[in-house]
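can u do me a favor
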């Protein structure tokens, strides 16, 4: 059974990398169920190659809002697939449909899987943004740590290097910081979740999956923004 066009979750990759969008789209496969909402992943072509600074975050707020406004009639929910949740609250003012950010959803999901979560970031300069967000959510006491792999978004396609660094950082979060659940701090890491979870022996949350899972529930239950 094909879902009607209005029963559709739009997953917005705010950077301009089609490779990242393809990785997110592949991560959605377990959530594409018969009779369930369609899950469409799109690239924000106006975005930078990666969301790596606060300036990048601010740059995509208006284009994300325009996409939400343009697709409001044919979508039942929206997911902003960047771990900085750019434009989340602005987009929520534009629609009565659910708008979910992957950082917020990833953190909430992680707290159902363990007591203390660790975040695997791409760059050290990302950590300050993440810490501000955790503070805004009021869940700082549940955070074990946030460590960077030292690779930008465009470098995540190098599987050998990326996985080696992710495995190293995941072990540090587990063994040195006491994390019992991990969150991948960039949508570009999506393809590595299952492999990393097997390797590190802890639950690993891919935040785009977490956000879409929540969006499916909200759309089906009729919970608006």
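np, heres the sequence
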């Amino acid at each position: 059974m094909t879902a009607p066009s209005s029963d559709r979750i739009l997953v917005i990759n705010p950077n301009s990398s089609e490779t990242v969008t393809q990785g997110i789209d592949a991560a959605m496969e377990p959530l594409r169920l018969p009779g369930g909402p369609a899950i469409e992943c799109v690239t924000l072509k106006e975005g930078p190659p990666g969301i790596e600074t606060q300036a990048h975050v601010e740059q995509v707020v208006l284009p994300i809002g325009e996409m939400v406004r343009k697709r409001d009639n044919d979508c039942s929910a929206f997911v902003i697939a960047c771990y900085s949740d750019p434009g989340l609250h602005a987009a929520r003012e534009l629609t009565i449909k659910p708008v979910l950010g992957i950082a917020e959803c990833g953190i909430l999901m992680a707290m159902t899987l363990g007591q203390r979560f660790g975040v695997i970031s791409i760059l050290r300069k990302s950590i300050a943004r993440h810490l501000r967000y955790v503070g805004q959510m009021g869940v700082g006491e549940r955070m074990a740590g946030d460590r960077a792999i030292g690779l930008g978004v465009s470098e995540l396609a190098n599987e050998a290097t990326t996985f080696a660094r992710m495995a190293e950082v995941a072990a540090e979060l587990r063994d040195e910081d006491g994390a019992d659940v991990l969150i991948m701090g960039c949508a570009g890491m999506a393809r590595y979740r299952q492999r990393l979870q097997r390797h590190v022996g802890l639950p690993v949350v891919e935040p785009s999956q977490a956000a879409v899972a929540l969006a499916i529930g909200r759309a089906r239950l009729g919970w608006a923004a």
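The first strand starts at residue 8 and ends at 13. hope that helps!!
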